[in-house]
Amino acid sequence: MITGATSGIGEACATIFAQNNCNLIITGRRADRLQKLSAQLTTNYGIKVLPLVFDIRNYDEVKIAIGSLEGEWKNIDILINNAGLSLGLDPIDKGSIDDWNTMIDTNVKGLLYISRLVSPLMVERKQGHIINLGSIAGKETYANGNVYCASKHAVDALNKAMRIDLLPYNIRVTAIHPGAVETEFSIVRFKGDEEKAKNVYKGFEALSANDIADTIYYCAALPSHVNINELTIMPTAQANTVYWNKRG
Ligand code: NDP
Ligand code: 8X3
């Protein structure tokens, strides 16, 4: 099950897992994109795909979606908690309360809602793997990144906490913490300003969604007694949130 599969890292994960013969539950709000991806993956790779359209911020919607799973679809082997976003890049004294609420509701509460509903299915089967998309922003902070960074620090903490809580049940828990990945992330952050978004990745080679999907697949495909607790992965040109060779 991959949340946020309509774009970027989630979509790339859907493709690589499909190429490796995994049946998929893919989720997101944009039904048209989910339908298109579903059809593509089914045709190209002969796997089964179940698209589920819901807003991860709305617990009732999430509950109905997960509650609708029947038969083998309840046997979720891998949950990729990927849906997430940043909104704005403003100092703490000027940030938008709406943006802050959306980031916290999506990146923290949405991830919790899904995990609360899917982890019992894994606990029951004493098997599973939860892969949480953190960020370098969950390890460090950067100017004007305040609430996005805080939300990803929360993911870092939740990843460690899940690892401990799910230890008795043979469930693996992994966080992937990427640096800059060129997806729709910056278009969303800058609210559709494509020029501004493009500039973020100018002058260096950013990671691609496929780079992250490959890494996630690597973690998932390891033997079941091997758990990568967390992995930070950066473009070669970016040491951390401060040091980029494009900045001299
Ligand atoms: P994209 O914007 O390309 O994709 C984000 C995905 O999240 C979309 O599929 C979107 O689907 C989904 N999503 C967002 N809000 C909601 C919501 N309320 N309900 C359901 N789904 C939602 O960004 P990325 O692929 O780059 O981001 C994926 C994850 O990786 C995020 O958690 C991000 O924080 C993290 N990350 C990204 C980095 C980067 O530089 N790109 C670096 C480090 C981490 P839809 O709009 O259809 O609902
Ligand atoms: C996305 C990476 O550095 O733009 O999580 O916050 S960064």
Short description:
This protein is of the alpha/beta class and 248 residues long.
What features would you describe in this structure?
With 248 residues, the protein is α/β, with parallel strands linked by helices. The chain has one domain (8-233): 3-Layer(aba) Sandwich (Rossmann fold). The protein is built from 8 helices and 6 strands, in the order H-E-H-E-H-E-H-E-H-E-H-H-H-E. The chain has helices at 8-19, 31-45, 59-67, 97-125, 146-165, 185-189, 194-200, 209-221; strands at 24-28, 49-53, 78-81, 128-133, 171-178, 230-233. The strands form 2 sheets. Strands 3-4-5-6 form a 4-stranded parallel sheet, with helices on both faces. The protein has a two-stranded parallel ribbon with strand order 1-2. Strand 3 (78-81), helix 4 (97-125) and strand 4 form a beta-alpha-beta unit. Helix 1 crosses helix 8 (209-221), helix 3 runs parallel beside helix 4 and helix 4 runs parallel beside helix 5 (146-165). The chain starts with 7 loop residues before the first helix and ends in a 15-residue tail after the last strand. Residues 4-10, 28-30, 55-57, 82-85, 106, 133, 135, 178, 180-181, 183-185, 188, 209 line the site of NADPH dihydro-nicotinamide-adenine-dinucleotide phosphate.
